Amino acid sequence: MSVPDWLSLTLVCILGAASPGPSLAVILSAVQTGGRAAGLAAAIGHGLGIFLYAFVAATSLSFIITHHATLFFTLQLAGALLLIWLGGRLLLASFRPRDEPAPASTQSGMSGSFLSGFAIAAFNPKIAAFFASLFSQFFAEGQSLGLHVSMATLAGVIDVVTYVIIVIAVSGDRLQAMMGARLHLFERALGGMLMLIGVSLLITHFVTA
Asked: Which residues contact 105 (CB under 8 A, 6 or more apart)?
């Protein structure tokens, strides 16, 4: 691959990571329920999920999607249910009294945030389809496995860095102070959005199944 190819791949990965969607909502949810540390854990988990999907896409994804439709459908359903669960958890957290401190980011809480970030990527086969389409533009006969691993690693690193920047920005004391009493409204809106996305995905999957 040439330098312009790598730059193009990098730009598309950045735009994909920064685009609003379920993944961003889950990362923000982790910040609201567990603070900055939980958000960072979720970002790292999501990046790992992105790397794995990107690696599969760079090797054998098109075959899996074509010949294992049941697995693809199961992943879609699991992802939709995960969004509904995360949204419900955030809605419950939004009713916590403002003078009651948020739960500390314990080891188990960090692990849960990490798994949530990983799961929202792992249970979203559309991410895999995205990378299959993206990488196909850069594939050429005779490319090595090392090159494909490098492409997948680039995608994962960009994803982690993008979400780490977002987490640091939204968890800053100044922004939290500006939101103040409106924080619970943001949490409810975010939780409701997660649940709405999950329900709409369930309906779509069953209608098109």
From this structure: 34, 35, 37, 38, 41, 113
